[in-house]
């Protein structure tokens, strides 16, 4: 009897659960904003793609026109040879840059980099969209680090389960190099250096005034709009780990909370390593819309009228569009790509390769012979193909 009543109740509860929940006015407004933002992002992406396509076409046209305008076959061949040479130099330059970057990153993981951990043990506190946002923020950290003149030695700890799957599915992080991917918690990974761990949290009492190379700074991998306020402070306190907050209050008076996103905190650390100047780091990284007033002691910097007007309306509450974008880590494709530019370079190289081949085939058609210099073009592709894995292999080697 009790069972029947129980199952009836469950059925009723199920029925209720199936009903689409009535949205409050605030929730409707939020949903509307979210949809508008998604539409804006989609439109921006489509426009970016179209612009890129149009640029490639335009460049092809101009190059074809230049060839067509050449007064003689000899002049045409000279143009082609000059283009091959320019390209050879560009590829050489890119290869050098990649090698230099790989060297900087290698040095960072060998001890020269400030040690920073992204603690990924909070997946169970986040909704799928928050995990997705965190994934983007992690991608951004990885990208910014690769680009940095002074990269950090970066760890992802507690990188298992849903978080690892998400990272793998969305950004193929298996191929990431010069980053430590650790399924273990930071406590296990650094069990012999617990006294050097410093958990960064906006809820700490202690204010960070400098970075110490012997310390390992931990950033909480949490996108929560501060729903879980104090969570990282509590965690660190329970584990007997030091905590510290960024000295934002000494330089800026944010119009609301001083809780920043994971990537913002990481980028501030990188900027500080580079400049040893918190003010520069905060001004470079914290978006203007988030900055309220400049503190009196930083009086040298004055806000202009536009800034002041903006500062006046800045709020970081849940309905704030800008805050949501930042909290979601909404970065442009270029931002995200900036550290993955081996791929971007390869795309450009491929575009150029295609253009060169088109041109040469064109010339060959006219000449009715095998494309002149095609061996050279093949040689070029081979050198690009060789150069890229070399660097990647070198990068991979130090991490494995
Ligand atoms: C979006 S916040 C998460 C806030 C979360 N409620 C908490 O308990 O930390 C992401 C992480 O960035 C770091 N963080 C954000 N603002 C900070 C600040 N003002 N000072 C130090 N660390 C900060 C912390 O490590 C934090 O866990």
TrEMBL record:
GO MF term set: tRNA (guanosine(9)-N1)-methyltransferase activity; tRNA binding
GO cellular component: nucleus
Enzyme Commission number(s): 2.1.1.221
UniProt catalytic activity: guanosine(9) in tRNA + S-adenosyl-L-methionine = N(1)-methylguanosine(9) in tRNA + S-adenosyl-L-homocysteine + H(+)
Protein name, UniProt field: tRNA (guanine(9)-N(1))-methyltransferase
Organism: Eleusine coracana subsp. coracana
Signal peptide: none
Gene this protein is translated from: ga02577
Cited PROSITE patterns: SAM_MT_TRM10
Domain SAM-dependent MTase TRM10-type: from-to ranges: 101-293
Keywords carried by this UniProt record: Methyltransferase, S-adenosyl-L-methionine, Transferase
């Amino acid at each position: 009897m009790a069972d029947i009543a129980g199952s009836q109740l469950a059925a009723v509860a199920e029925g209720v659960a199936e009903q689409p929940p009535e949205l409050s006015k605030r929730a409707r407004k939020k949903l509307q904003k979210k949809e508008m933002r998604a539409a804006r992002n989609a439109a921006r992406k489509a426009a970016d793609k179209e612009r890129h396509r149009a640029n490639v076409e335009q460049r092809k046209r101009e190059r074809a026109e230049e060839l067509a305008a050449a007064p003689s076959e000899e002049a045409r061949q000279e143009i082609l040879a000059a283009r091959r040479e320019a390209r050879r130099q560009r590829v050489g330059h890119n290869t050098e840059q990649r090698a230099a970057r790989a060297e900087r990153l290698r040095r960072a993981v060998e001890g020269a980099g400030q040690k920073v951990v992204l603690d990924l043990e909070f997946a169970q506190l986040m909704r799928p969209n928050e995990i997705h946002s965190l994934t983007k923020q992690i991608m951004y950290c990885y990208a910014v680090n690769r680009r940095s003149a002074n990269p950090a030695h970066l760890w992802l700890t507690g990188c298992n389960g849903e978080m690892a799957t998400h990272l793998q599915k969305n950004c193929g992080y298996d191929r990431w190099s010069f980053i430590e991917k650790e399924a273990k918690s930071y406590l296990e990974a650094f069990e012999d250096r617990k006294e050097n761990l410093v958990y960064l949290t906006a809820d700490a009492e202690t204010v960070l005034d400098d970075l110490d190379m012997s310390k390992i700074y931990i950033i909480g991998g949490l996108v929560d709009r501060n729903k879980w306020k104090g969570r990282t402070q509590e965690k660190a306190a329970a584990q007997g780990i030091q905590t510290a907050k960024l000295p934002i209050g000494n330089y800026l008076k944010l119009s609301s909370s001083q809780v920043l996103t994971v990537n913002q905190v990481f980028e501030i650390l990188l900027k500080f390593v580079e400049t040893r100047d918190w003010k520069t780091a905060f001004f470079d990284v914290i978006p203007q819309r988030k900055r309220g007033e400049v503190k009196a002691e930083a009086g040298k910097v004055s806000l202009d009228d536009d800034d002041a007007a903006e500062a006046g309306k800045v709020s970081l509450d849940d309905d704030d569009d800008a805050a949501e974008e930042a909290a979601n880590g909404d970065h442009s494709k270029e931002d995200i790509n900036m550290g993955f530019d081996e791929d971007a370079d390869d795309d450009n190289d491929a575009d150029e390769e295609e253009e060169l081949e088109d041109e040469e085939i064109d010339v060959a058609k006219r000449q009715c012979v095998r494309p002149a210099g095609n061996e050279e073009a093949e040689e070029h592709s081979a050198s690009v193909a060789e150069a890229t894995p070399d660097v990647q292999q070198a990068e991979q080697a130090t991490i494995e």
